[in-house]
């Protein structure tokens, strides 16, 4: 268990690919983090640098204030779970789980107790003596995880898209196990994922990356309510945030023809402005009106696509009797309207 | 349709088996024939109709005008097995290093070094005969088992390296990384994690080494005189102006026996799924 700090960290691969741009970041001890971002944005690169599989081309990695940049993977005491389960084929499940302790010369009785406890926790007790190859993909992934957990003093558990090859049904189970384990063992956990649901439900801090940069790090709530860029707003939340081109008129910013407006901060430029709000933040009834162009049924809710003036946007509403072509009245509270200039949050 | 297919399949297998088995059958019957039996020909049924004689087999075990095959057989066994074990051990270590770590020697990179190993087998053996002879002479190892083992290691190790580099390249690197993360040093990683995954490769490499080592005649012939004789050389010394087919057949069977046993063992291993799914 450790606090992990990345200081002025940057990495480019030998072939010139600039995978990580210089960044500073701290992973709190015992925190759960989700790394979210499109393919190729440098998520795996960051994890591999933390675990020591990759040496950063610039900057330092610190565990609890101690510089570990030049230390080997083994000395850092990190557990990493990859997309494809990695298991030792020639060993049984029990031997797989015991291996990290065997390598670290832990006394045998201690190993036995530890392996049994972890197997119990992960629901692998029945399989301890089976050959690891014979298990299903999700059980193999649990073995990978278990090999990290048997070490009581593991600095952090890094999970690089561990649920991609798992059945959707098992995914839910595994996610729950991960969450429970984090609570029980107070481990620092970093989960890389493409799935925003996974990120938002698992982590207390979500880190959104793009093109080798950290764009925003915050609680799921913050990410949802105040996306730092239009990219984050589009990436997180379903349906995506509404982004409407806006203009400045005096001390107000408004969407022409739609009736949406808010006060403008003093030094706001006049071009390249966007007003945005979450479909979830629209409330029924009010001064705004739009024609329903499409309806998505979502159980108790429905998502309505509206055309308001020249703009089209989506709102989430209680399931009701609206039909395509009907006029719907709604409002967006002032404190839920976000203002972006050149794609970056202004207010 | 299905029956026809099955019938054709069994016919094909039967034909192929006959093709493979007949030389053995031929050698086996010939080894029990006398000169008359070999040249006379049969009236009705070949391979059965002849006067059996133990002359061929006797000449292999110290009979009149023959040799004693026991000592050369033992020598061949010792040389082949020792050289194979040494080559596999060294070759596997070298192959793992070449597959996992980056080396640079002058202008040569990993793939060049690997090719350098293999290139040792591209030269015709005759090129090596004189250097080997001189080297063994200066070491005082001519005509001795250790000398032969040394030379055979030089011949077999390239094969082991070649086979094993390929095999290790097929074992995912993620496995090494996981082992490091679990706190293994490179030696334990190799021994406990990677090697078990490369077991089928070891079997293949071992098989090649044993076959090449066992069958070599050239170096066994050029680097020994009278003290140390390997089986292929001993068998050749059976020959005379009148070819003793019976002794040669018996000798052929004796020299082939270990390889047949090896083939059965390896076949067992393969059919038990030793190769299947060795690598994820
Ligand atoms: N070994 C490598 N050599 C050169 N370039 C690499 C290497 N590994 C990754 N890259 C490049 O670095 C960038 C970041 O890769 P990285 O694997 O960190 O992305 P990622 O966010 O994990 O993507 P994914 O979601 O697909 O796993 C990519 O542009 C990728 O092409
Ligand atoms: Mg990745």
From TrEMBL, chain A:
Cell membrane in keyword set: yes
Annotated Gene Ontology cellular component terms: ATP-binding cassette (ABC) transporter complex, substrate-binding subunit-containing
Keyword Nucleotide-binding: yes
Cited Gene3D superfamilies: 2.40.50.100, P-loop containing nucleotide triphosphate hydrolases
Keywords annotated in UniProt: ATP-binding, Cell membrane, Membrane, Nucleotide-binding, Plasmid, Transport
InterPro entries according to UniProt: AAA+_ATPase, ABC_transporter-like_ATP-bd, ABC_transpr_FbpC, ABC_transpr_MalK/UgpC-like, Mo/tungstate-bd_C_term_dom, P-loop_NTPase
GO molecular function: ABC-type ferric iron transporter activity; ATP binding; ATP hydrolysis activity
Matches recorded under Pfam families: ABC_tran
Residue span(s) of domain ABC transporter: 4-236
Similarity field: Belongs to the ABC transporter superfamily.
Descriptive protein name: ABC transporter ATP-binding protein
């Amino acid at each position: 268990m450790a606090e992990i700090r990345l200081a002025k960290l940057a990495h480019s691969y030998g072939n010139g690919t600039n995978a990580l741009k210089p960044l500073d970041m701290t992973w709190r001890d015992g925190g759960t983090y989700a790394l979210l971002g499109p393919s190729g944005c440098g998520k795996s690169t960051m994890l591999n640098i933390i675990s020591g599989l990759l040496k950063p081309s610039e900057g330092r990695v610190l565990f609890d204030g101690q510089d570990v940049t030049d230390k080997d993977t083994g000395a850092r005491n990190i557990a990493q779970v990859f997309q494809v389960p990695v298991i030792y084929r020639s060993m049984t499940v029990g031997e797989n789980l015991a291996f990290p302790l065997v390598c670290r010369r832990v006394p045998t009785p201690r190993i036995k107790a530890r392996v049994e406890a972890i197997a119990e926790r992960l629901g692998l007790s029945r399989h301890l003596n089976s050959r690891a190859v014979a298990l299903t993909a999700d059980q193999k992934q649990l073995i990978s995880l278990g090999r990290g957990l048997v070490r009581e003093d593991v600095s952090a558990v890094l999970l690089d898209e561990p649920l991609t090859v798992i059945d959707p049904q098992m995914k839910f189970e595994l996610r729950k196990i991960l969450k429970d384990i984090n609570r029980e063992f107070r481990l620092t956990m970093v989960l890389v994922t493409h799935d925003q649901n996974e990120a938002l439900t698992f982590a207390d801090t979500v880190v959104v990356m793009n093109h080798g940069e950290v764009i925003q790090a915050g609680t799921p709530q913050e990410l949802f309510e105040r996306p730092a860029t239009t990219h984050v707003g589009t990436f997180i939340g379903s349906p995506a945030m509404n982004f409407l081109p806006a203009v400045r008129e005096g001390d107000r910013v408004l969407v022409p023809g739609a009736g949406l407006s808010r006060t403008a901060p003093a030094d706001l430029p006049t071009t390249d402005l966007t007003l945005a709000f979450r479909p979830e933040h629209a409330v029924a009834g009010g001064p705004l009106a739009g024609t329903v162009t499409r309806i998505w049924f979502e159980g108790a809710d429905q998502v309505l696509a509206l055309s308001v003036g020249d703009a089209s946007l989506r709102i989430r509403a209680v399931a009701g009797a609206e039909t395509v072509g009907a006029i719907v009245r709604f409002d967006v509270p002032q404190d839920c309207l976000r203002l972006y200039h050149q794609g970056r949050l202004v207010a | 349709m299905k029956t026809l297919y099955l019938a054709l399949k069994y016919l094909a297998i039967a034909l192929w088996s006959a093709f493979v088995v007949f030389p053995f059958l031929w050698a086996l019957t010939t080894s029990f024939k006398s000169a008359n039996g070999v040249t006379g020909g049969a009236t009705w049924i070949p391979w059965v109709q002849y006067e059996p004689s133990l002359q061929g087999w006797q000449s292999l075990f110290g009979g009149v005008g023959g040799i004693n095959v026991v000592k050369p057989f033992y020598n061949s066994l010792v040389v082949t097995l020792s050289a194979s074990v040494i080559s596999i051990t060294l070759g596997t270590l070298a192959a793992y290093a070449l597959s996992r770590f980056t080396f640079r020697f002058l202008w040569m990179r990993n793939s060049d070094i690997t090719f350098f190993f293999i290139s040792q087998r591209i030269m015709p053996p005759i090129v090596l005969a004189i250097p080997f002879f001189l080297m063994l002479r200066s070491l005082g190892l001519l005509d001795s088992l250790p000398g032969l083992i040394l030379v055979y290691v030089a011949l077999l190790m390239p094969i082991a390296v070649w086979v094993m580099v390929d095999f290790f390249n097929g074992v995912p690197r993620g496995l090494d990384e996981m082992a490091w993360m679990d706190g293994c040093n490179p030696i334990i990683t190799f021994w406990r994690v990677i090697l078990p995954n490369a077991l089928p490769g070891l079997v293949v490499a071992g098989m090649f080494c044993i076959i090449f080592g066992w069958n070599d005649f050239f170096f066994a012939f050029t680097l020994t005189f009278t003290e140390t004789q390997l089986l292929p050389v001993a068998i050749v010394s059976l020959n005379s102006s009148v070819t003793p087919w019976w002794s040669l057949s018996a000798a052929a069977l004796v020299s082939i026996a270990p390889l047949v046993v090896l083939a059965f063992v390896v076949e067992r291993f393969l059919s038990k799924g030793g190769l299947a799914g060795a690598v994820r």
